[in-house]
Amino acid sequence: MTYQALYRVWRPQFFKDVVGQSVITQTLKHAVMNNKVSHAYLFCGPRGTGKTSTAKILAKAVNCPNQSEGEPCNKCDICNKITNNQLNDVIEIDAASNNGVNEIRDIRDKVKYLPTEARFKIYIIDEVHMLSNGAFNALLKTLEEPPANVIFILATTEPHKIPATVISRTQKFNFNRISTEECYQHLLEVINSMNLDFEEKAVRIVAKSAKGGMRDALSILDQVISFDPNRVSVKNALLVTGSTDSDVLSDYLSYIVDGKIESAINLVQSLLYKGQGHQRFLEDLSEYIKNVLLISRNIQLSEDISINQELVSKLTTNQCYKFIGLVSDTIDKLKYTDQQDIYLDILTIELCDSLKKTNRFNQSNDVSENLILDKQKDVSNPVDVNSKKDSPKSLSLDNVKSSESESEKSDIVTNIGTIDNDINKVLCSATKKDLNLMKNLWNDLLSELSVTDRAMLNVANCVAASKDAIIIAFEYAFIYKKAQESNLNTEVTKVISKLLGKDVLVIFIIKDKWQRVRQEFLNDRQNRQQSKEISEQNVAVDQAKKIFGENNIEIIND
Prior knowledge:
Layout: H1 6-9, H2 22-33, E1 40-44, H3 51-63, H4 77-83, E2 90-94, H5 101-110, E3 121-126, H6 133-144, E4 150-156, H7 164-167, E5 171-174, H8 180-193, E6 197-198, H9 200-209, H10 214-227, E7 231-232, H11 234-241, H12 246-257, H13 261-273, H14 278-296, H15 309-314, H16 317-334, H17 340-380, H18 397-417, H19 420-429, H20 432-447, H21 451-457, E8 460-465, E9 469-474, H22 477-485, H23 488-500, E10 505-510, H24 511-548
Parallel strand pairs: 1-4, 1-5, 2-3, 3-4, 6-7, 9-10
Antiparallel strand pairs: 8-9
Helix pairs in contact: 2-3, 3-4, 5-6, 8-9, 9-10, 9-11, 10-11, 12-13, 13-17, 14-16, 16-17
């Protein structure tokens, strides 16, 4: 016999085997026991949560001649045939490929015939939301007035796509995502039955990665076992699921907290080189920060999760909120770009910068409190009124934030406002040939720079070049400001001069500013050209008047 996947081997055969859906299975068992089975059911929920398995167990339970307490015996001929998909009275239909009116009309025509072997004829329609409007209308009449010997079980992952008229004629059951703990316990049962050696952390990684789907959990476990048939290890679990080890996440955040940007970027690039998924890394990072936040608020975690306690003591609640927001924004941005590595580098820099700003704010807060205390001391110990004019004024928190924000804005305006003339000079002699040369040298330039410098240049492009100067435009203002504050310009100038074998001028600018300056240059050049043409035209007219006489000339504008 060929190998069977674990999710097929461990497919539930009794209601009691269905993991995480006890309310639903208990209700169905009572319905079977008391002969109160409905003519139509709607099973809704995420994939892999037991909808189709429960439907087949229900089909066996209502038809089994030996059912006990609502459970099928799974030994009789009827049960075995249903399990092996050999009973003609239990019909499974995939609505994804049989979604037309004709297929449903065929069902409607056949439901009037009595079952050949079983007590009830069961129609299990999977992914029922895929039916067309015409097919739903054809099904509606049968659901409204069904024969006594027919039961419909509709299953879907998207119940909102099903017409309300259909839903109202069924008993609806919502299958919930299976909790990580329930999934973990079931995986342990599977592993123990196979006599496999395992690491508890590895099993938890698999359970968590399944995201509430038991079928997915068993499929992932199957892959992990394929790596090593004798042991379920953390290494293989991380490799198969693409999850990030909590120790790695701890190291990354520790680098951020300590301001070691280059180490943090190197760590991420190392993970990506090994095949780590961008989005999965960010999701795991967000989850880790959330757990740091919960522990810092003395909230007990439901799972045995390893968290760096030093990070809990160093990161404030507001910093955790800020970190999670930045990570979430980056996840959204990944959907619209092919250069995902760049956004992870940007995120690393943003996390470090946000931490510095928070620390500056806290320091300003401390200064404010001290000044207020000093003022209170002055009130309690009156001094000469004339001396008060030299005493420090109290500083409000709003003033601190406002002055910091205005300072940052003025820095950027000042820095970019002084380079317009240099840019115009470059544009006057810029050529496409020089620009293409610089674009061809761009990767060579990056390879000569440090990781931190490369990260900043990853969101910049060479937008214009002449024989002895180039202009580099940055996508984001805060990265541009950081480049201005560092020695990036010096390093870039040094490397490009080395590559070209001559001294060059390197100009940094923000992309928005570059577009405006370039447009102004083009407009100015166009105006100059038009003025030149008008001047030349006037000279030609004057000469013609002298030769032919003013009355013999007619001027026609094109």
